[in-house]
User: What shape does this take?
Amino acid sequence: MNASRFTLYLGLMTFLLSPQAMANAPTAAPPPAPSQMVKLSSMGHLVNHDKRISTFKTLLHQAKLESVLNAHGAMTLFAPSNEALGELPKSITHKLEHDAKFRKAFIMSHVFAGKMSTDFLRKTDTIRALTAREYMIRKENNTLLVDNQSFLAQDINASNGMLHIVNGPLIQAD
Assistant: This one.
């Protein structure tokens, strides 16, 4: 490096490190205060307040399984929409209304251990519900399907997991 370049370099460095230059330098934004941080709701809270799945919420309350969705630990819930539950055959609707054991199994067949985002689901072929039933995951025309049900809403974060709203219940024949 010749002397004139060195002098220019030294002058530039001296200026950049001067108090005047440092006072005008951009700074990173401070981290948000704890009161500004987003607090995620529990899965139970999300289900209780989402009108799209109020029928599922009613079944959950009738089955006395609210505590499952408020538990600590990661879970994923595939909640069928009100419209989907309204289209169930009368025989299944009757069982949901009058058979407590069937109602509990129905609810639990929609709950899965672990927080499963759609990114995760795209990389797997099957998932296992808390009832130990396995459901197929597949992609059709760039649409992700769980047990042939598509997503109406996906990747809704909860403090204890992930909620997806699907266009049909996850039902397997015994």
